[in-house]
Specification:
The protein is α/β, with parallel strands linked by helices and 249 residues long. It has 8 helices and 7 strands.
C-alpha cells in the first residue's frame, strides 16, 4: 500500500482550506454529529494523505471512535476494495474528561455512532470491539493482525496514549500510516497527563523507522524499514556521562 509522499502543506495552508463548504456538508448530511471535529478540522488532511489509498485493499484500525465522524468517512472512502476491513475499538464510556460533570452524554454518543455507521455503504466491513484498548489491542496482537493504517484517538491521558501507540506500532505494517489526533490538546494543566508528552516520547523511541508525513493538528507517521542501524558503543564504560534519568524536575 506504500505511496509516494506528496509535497507537504504547512499547517497554516491546511487551516486555510474550505472546511465548511456546502458541498462537504451536503455530502454528509445523512449523518448526525453533535461534535463534528473531524469534518471541521481534520477532513482535508485525511483527503490529502488517505484519499489516494481509495481502491486499495486496506485493513484499518481506529482506536477511539466517539460518534463515528472519522469512522463514516473511512467507510465511505477507503473501503472500496471488496476485501478491505475497518476495526474500531471503544468502550463508549468516555475518557477521564468525559466523566461526572462533563457536557457529554455517552449513551447517546454510542447510539449516534451505531446509527451513523449503519448508513454507510460499506457498513458490513466494520468490526466493533467494545472494550478498553489495553485489552483489545493485545487480543489483536494475539490474532497476529496487521494493519495498513492506524488512527489513535481514544483516551487523552498520556500513559494511555503511550500504551496505544506502542502496541499499535507492533500491529502496523511496514509502509503503513499511523495517525495521532489531539497532538496539541491541553486538557490538563499538568503536562504529565496530556497526549503530547506521550506522543513525543513515542516518536523518540521509533525515530529509526519513521517518516513524518504531516506534523500539525494531527501527526501522521509512515512506518519504514529501520534506517538507523544500531552502533556498538566503543566506550568500555557503557554509561552516559551524567548519571540517572534526566528531566525529573
Amino acid at each position: 500500500m506504500a505511496k509516494p509522499i506528496q509535497k507537504q502543506q504547512s499547517s497554516a495552508e491546511i487551516l486555510k482550506m474550505p472546511h465548511h463548504s456546502n458541498g462537504r456538508r451536503l455530502e454528509r448530511s445523512r449523518f448526525e454529529f453533535e461534535h463534528p471535529w473531524f469534518d471541521d478540522e481534520q477532513r482535508p488532511t485525511w483527503e490529502k494523505h488517505a484519499g489516494p489509498l481509495q481502491g486499495e485493499k486496506l485493513n484499518i484500525l481506529e482506536v477511539g471512535c466517539f460518534e463515528g465522524c472519522a469512522t463514516t468517512w473511512i467507510l465511505d472512502n477507503l473501503m472500496n476494495h471488496p476485501e478491505s476491513r475497518l476495526t474500531v475499538i471503544d468502550t463508549f464510556e468516555g475518557g477521564m474528561e468525559h466523566q461526572e460533570g462533563s457536557m457529554y452524554d455517552m449513551p447517546s454518543i454510542e447510539r449516534r455512532f451505531l446509527s451513523n455507521t449503519s448508513k454507510c455503504d460499506h457498513a458490513n466491513k466494520l468490526r466493533i470491539i467494545k472494550s478498553k484498548s489495553d485489552d483489545a489491542l493485545l487480543d489483536l496482537r494475539r490474532e497476529r493482525t496487521c494493519f495498513d493504517l492506524v488512527y489513535i484517538d481514544a483516551s487523552h491521558v498520556a500513559m494511555d496514549v503511550l500504551h496505544d501507540a506502542v502496541v499499535c506500532w507492533r500491529l502496523l505494517s511496514v509502509h503503513g500510516l499511523m495517525v495521532f489526533d489531539d497532538v496539541s490538546w491541553k486538557g490538563y494543566l499538568e503536562d504529565c497527563y496530556n497526549p503530547r508528552v506521550a506522543i513525543e516520547s513515542f516518536v523518540a523511541c521509533v525515530k529509526q523507522e519513521i517518516q513524518v508525513v504531516e506534523n500539525g493538528m494531527q501527526l501522521w507517521l509512515r512506518k519504514t524499514e529501520n534506517c538507523i542501524p544500531a552502533t556498538a558503543n566503543p566506550d568500555s564504560g557503557l554509561v552516559y556521562p551524567e548519571m540517572g534519568v534526566r528531566n525529573l524536575e
